[in-house]
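in:
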């Protein structure tokens, strides 16, 4: 086949779908068949194998942890940009402004970017909040950024992006970025130092401790089936502080987990569980 692609039988496709669902919760539709062939063929050939059956056999019976990670990395899609869905950041500024108005200097502030991809989302959070509230430099303010794809996390941690990332941003927002020594854009140190990038499989254990004052989990649930979505959103609700917020993608809904939340804005939710904690206190 062209580009060194390997033929994929229905049986092999079924095995791959079952494998990625089991290890990452990702539900591949039949429409993803071409994507699977194009993204995995190079890996299969690189391992000296000639079929997808042999590749899945390797993953199941003798592959390394890196082999398993490469498999997941290849089948995840990373589409993001700075200030994506701007109404979320407007709402977050209002929320954090309220916290600042009612809490003493040095208060703990924690935000989680779940499914952070190459880092534009958590860096936007840091840049935007520091620009709006310089006093946050004196707070215990940290941003956790997680993704299952270790390759995109490595790019995110560098904090360097091409100039094209500024396309569509206002001049005021463009001035928040610095020029990198070798060209492109550099996230300023003040924002980089706020963010900790960690690998995390959202269907596995969550070692971090909450509560979080805001959680961004946008365009992640679309890769899961309804039961997995419901379970994940339920777990996210338990990680929120009282009066905290969950931000999801414009094409997503809470589905089976919706009963644990109340809608407060377009794709913006508060956890009923977290509100219950406050009322019981």
């Amino acid at each position: 086949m062209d580009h060194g692609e390997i033929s994929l039988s229905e049986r092999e496709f079924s095995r791959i779908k079952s494998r990625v669902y089991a290890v990452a919760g990702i539900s591949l539709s039949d429409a993803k068949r071409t994507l699977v062939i194009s993204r995995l063929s190079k890996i299969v050939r690189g391992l000296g194998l000639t079929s997808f059956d042999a590749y899945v056999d390797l993953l199941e019976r003798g592959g390394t942890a890196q082999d398993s990670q490469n498999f997941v990395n290849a089948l995840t899609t990373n589409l993001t940009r700075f200030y994506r869905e701007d109404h979320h950041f407007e709402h977050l500024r209002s929320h954090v402004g309220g916290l600042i108005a009612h809490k003493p200097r040095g208060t703990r502030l924690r935000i989680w970017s779940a499914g952070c991809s190459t880092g534009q989302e958590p860096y936007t959070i840091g840049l935007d909040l520091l620009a709006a509230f310089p006093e946050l430099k004196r707070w215990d303010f940290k941003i956790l950024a997680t993704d299952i794809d270790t390759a995109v996390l490595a790019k995110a941690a560098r904090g360097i992006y091409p100039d094209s990332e500024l396309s569509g941003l206002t001049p005021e927002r463009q001035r928040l970025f610095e020029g990198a020594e070798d060209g492109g854009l550099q996230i300023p140190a003040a924002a980089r130092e706020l963010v900790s990038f960690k690998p995390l499989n959202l269907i596995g254990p969550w070692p971090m401790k909450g509560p979080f004052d805001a959680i961004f989990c946008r365009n992640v649930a679309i890769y899961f089936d309804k039961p997995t979505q419901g379970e994940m959103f339920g777990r996210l609700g338990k990680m929120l502080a009282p009066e905290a917020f969950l931000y999801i993608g414009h094409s997503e809904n809470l589905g089976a987990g919706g009963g644990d939340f109340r809608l407060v804005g377009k794709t913006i939710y508060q956890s009923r569980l977290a509100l219950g904690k406050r009322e019981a206190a």
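note: The chain has a mean pLDDT of 91.
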